[in-house]
Model the fold of this input.
Amino acid sequence: MRKLHLTNAAGRDATVHTQGLRPAPPPERGVPGKAVHFARFLATDENGLHDTLAGAHGEDYGQALIDGDPEVDLESVGRFLGGTDKVFLSSTGDVLYAAPEVVEVIYGPDGAEKERRSPETVPGNVNETDPVIWTGKKMPKAKVVTRFAFQRAIQIRHVDGLTYDFLFAMAKELSDSGEMVLIGAGPGGKKPLVFQTNGSPYRGFLEGRIDGAKYKLLLHLSNMELKRPAEEA
Amino acid sequence: MAKPIVLNHGGAVSQFDFSKVDRKKLYGRRVRMNLDPAGERCANADLTDDGWRLIRRGMASQGYFDQDGSYLSSRDLVGLDADGNPLERVGSTLGTETALEGPIAPEVLLDMKISSVYALDALEVDAALQQALEAGQIFRFAFNYRSDFLAESALLLQNGEGVFALVGQPTESEWCELDQPPPPPVFEEEEEDDDLDFEMF
Done:
């Protein structure tokens, strides 16, 4: 369970617990009554790759595969693969023995390259020390759900009596007004929430629900607006 | 082209074409690229732990095997419940008349983890449904893109940009009480950086 440093409308802060909300896992696939396992295996060796086959038999090598199985080396094909290490190959297919240069390439929505630059490391900003901010920017729930697609939700929970009062009051305020409030990081809460280094930035909207003395305080996270791509709009 | 989404609202049928919307299409993307000494893009490969072989792209595959090591094709596999019993296959809903449920509360949408978003284009839309959507009402319907063992649902809504269907799975949160013991620790997987830019910010 992670901790979250959160401020309320008055700027008071507290450290509380969070728990990611996940759907039930999809059903496992298998054969009834039979133990099965999932494995990675060697499907072909270098001689079965397209470039090699095209070089040896021409581009239309389908019949050659049927006639002679040149892509199947009985000594190696089908062998299960265990652990592997990642290596980089040069554009000519040779193994690199020194770390490659890394660049960050920006593509526009049309798929065209817009910019190349040195990669920047963006640290996470949701943690125990830096508070995330109640910005005070509120929107009715009905409006928020038609403007953003929410891919993640986090439940915020108290850790003691004081934080129960702290979170209950926030949930009650939001429940009573039927609104959600924008939560942000950095000074004034102007920055999106980033949960880990180089992680996706999210807009966070806090929602509160109340049932007597019970509460739910849910942080809904979105990284996509509900709108049509520019070429379709 | 995929079959349309066909929805029944109060006995009247509406049909929509649909196209997937994702962040790449809206905002573009950011990719970290490895370059070789000549400034050309590197390819990735895997070296087996024992140094036996370099696995280039296209050389490996994956699948299910039984205890004898025999390969099982996808036709042999079914969805299994928690007790190992076979589940019924859920057919595709595309092209099939599907009942709309609702209007539903915004909380129903907030309780879903959205996995796909589709922009809808009306081929034929019932006037009452059109009016309800323009009024901001949200509806739910069963949605399954292709036949499989997981029934999904989608939420139909409209905003100033158009009509959308949001597909996902429900999540469950808990009520918190003053004297409630803390829940057991849950391992939280870290998300992977998906190299996407996000100009929404």
Summary: Chain A touches chain B through 106 residues (CB under 8 Å).
